[in-house]
Each structure stands twice: as structure tokens, then as C-alpha cells.
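User: Need the bound-state model for magnesium ion:
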Amino acid sequence: MFRVEHVTKSFGGLMAVSDVSFELKKGELSSIIGPNGAGKTTLFNLLTGHIKPDEGRIAFEGKEITDLSPHEICKRGIGRSFQRTNIFPRLSAFDNVQVALISWQRKSRNIFLKSDRLLREETNDILDSIGLGNKKETTAGLLAHGDQRLLEIGITLGTHPMLILLDEPTAGMSPEESNKTVELVRKLVREMGLTLLFIEHDMSVVFGISEKIRVMHMGSVMAEGSPEEIRANDDVQRIYLAEED
Ligand SMILES: Nc1ncnc2c1ncn2[C@@H]1O[C@H](COP(=O)(O)OP(=O)(O)O)[C@@H](O)[C@H]1O
Ligand SMILES: [Mg+2]
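Assistant: Bound-state model below.
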């Protein structure tokens, strides 16, 4: 359903993303891991049209999307969360999700616009699904960090994606919170029949949610395989150990 071919992007002399190719199958849960600076977020920015590749092509559902704007790509069904939380801090949790739904509805120019009541129901459904139903009146900026990250996922779901790209959704969470979030994301993605691509810095977090893991290092995908294969890969261990030093 999603195909990335030879995508490359340099910033000045720095090859941030270098000849990356991969495919995602419908319903697949996979992740991209790699040390800080490996090019993961830049790759996401390329996939969602926020920056344009120097070379390469991206296709979704059989159609090329390489030259589309972020908003066109979102409309096609690719939703994305950001590494840094991207909520409206002064609005309630409820309003954050509802604004996402309303703005998606406008963008999609759907002739069957939802009534306020249906939008409210859908907003409540999303908040329940991310476990924030009982905090929906809370001002988003006052939610705990982990809850803000969950809200960010809720906002992404509000764009009605078929494919969701989550950029370090567990960043800054405790290990317990991270595990809970990964479990929740897996459940949601399965229930909603979505395809997931999950960026993570911490290798241990992704094992529970990945059928396939791709490891980025210095702009390239240097390994691809099942969690077991990646865990046993000496080169992968080496780059992670090098980062700790
Ligand atoms: N807009 C930009 N201009 C210049 N350099 C950038 C820009 N965005 C990212 N980079 C550089 O590209 C490299 C990859 O960054 P990034 O994609 O954020 O890595 P990751 O998400 O894996 O930590 C880094 O060296 C970063 O400094
Ligand atoms: Mg990043």
C-alpha cells in the first residue's frame, strides 16, 4: 500500500536521508529505529510532504504522492504525529480532537458533512479509545506529559488515516507509560484496520509492536528484519553501543 523508492535528501553537505527504499503492506505494524540524528524524522518529513526529496519517489495506494503538499497527502489517508507534541495547549483535550475532526472535514470537502452531534460523538469515541475520556475537559497544556502524547495520537486519528506515522510517541515517558502506550497503539491500529509506521529511538520499546523493524544509521536503512533478527544483528548492536559511549 505504501512504497518508498530511492528517497534521498541532503541539507548542504549532509546526507540526512540516503537512498532509502522500503514497502509497507496493508495492516502491517512496523517501526524505524536508530540513534539520534540517523535521519528518522527527516524521512517522515519526506513521506508526508513537509520537505521534498532530492531524488526518489513515494507512492501510496498505487498513486505517486512525491510532489503533493502535506495537506493533500493527509487527505489521501496518511496521518502523522510529531516528535515534539503539537497540541493546542490552551484548548481542552476535547476541543483539540474536535478541531482536528472539523479541519479534516473541511479539507476533505466531503459533501456529507457531519452534524455537530456526530462530530461530538466521534470526538468522544476517539478520546475514549486513547483512554482520555475522563480527562476531556482538562486544558491540554495541563495534562501530564504522557497524556499529551496520547492526545497527539488522538489528533492524528482525527484525520481519518489509513496509514499512521508516529514519531517517537513515547518520547519522555517512563518505561511503564511507554509500554502502556505501545499496547494501546497496537490495539487501536488493529481494531481500526490501520497500517502503522512507528519511529522510536529506544530499541526495547518497539519489539512489542513491530512485525518488521528497519534500522536507520547515518541516513541509510542499514538493516531490516523481524525483532529477533534485529536483536541478533551485530552491526545494530554496535551502533547502539557506540551511541552510549
Ligand atoms: N532542516 C534541516 N536543516 C539542516 N539539517 C537538518 C534539518 N533537519 C534535520 N537535519 C539534520 O539531519 C540529520 C538527521 O536528523 P533527524 O532526521 O532529525 O534525525 P533523527 O530523527 O533520526 O534523530 C541530523 O544531522 C540533523 O541535524
Ligand atoms: Mg527524530
